[in-house]
Amino acid sequence: MATSSSSSAARCRRRVVLLRQPSREVEYEPPMRYCYHRMVASRWTAWTDGNPGRRFYGCPYYYQDGGCGFFAWHDNEFDERANTVIKELLDNIDKLYDENCLLRRVEHGHRLGEEVDSIQSDLRKLRRRHELYDRELRKAEKKFKVAMSLLFVTWVWLCVVYLKM
Ligand SMILES: [Zn+2]
């Protein structure tokens, strides 16, 4: 149980990490920048602790293997205050994601609980029906025994009558 909850938290955390991966713009306002491959350089957004949200130009293959190594900042360096605020906001996003994950798990648990209640209620109904059928069966068995006894008595009586004739 602890393993599954920690793995789903990790799943949610990975989503946040994905959000922070450098976003890539291939179209942007001129002047266009070109990498050493002579391709239009993509404009990326850095999410490192030192430069959260700061945009830069890089080879289209920058995040594969560095590409041709072309790199140039688009935004000027943010001041310390802006970096602190952005980092705090990102931390808040992480916290909200974690809370959201937790709430989803709790809601899922509630739904499972409701399903279990419904199944238990069905089970109780089935048990009642089973008891009813069982009672009917026992009554029928009793009637059958009485009928067989009557048949036997009648047969014996017929035998006696036949032997007297
Ligand atoms: Zn390149």
From TrEMBL:
Keyword terms of this UniProt record: Coiled coil, Membrane, Metal-binding, Transmembrane, Transmembrane helix, Zinc, Zinc-finger
The GRF-type domain, residue ranges: 35-77
Residue stretches in coiled coil: 116-143
Protein name: GRF-type domain-containing protein
Molecular function terms from GO: zinc ion binding
Domain of life: Eukaryota
InterPro entries to which the protein is assigned, alphabetical: Znf_GRF (IPR010666)
Transmembrane portions of the chain: 144-163
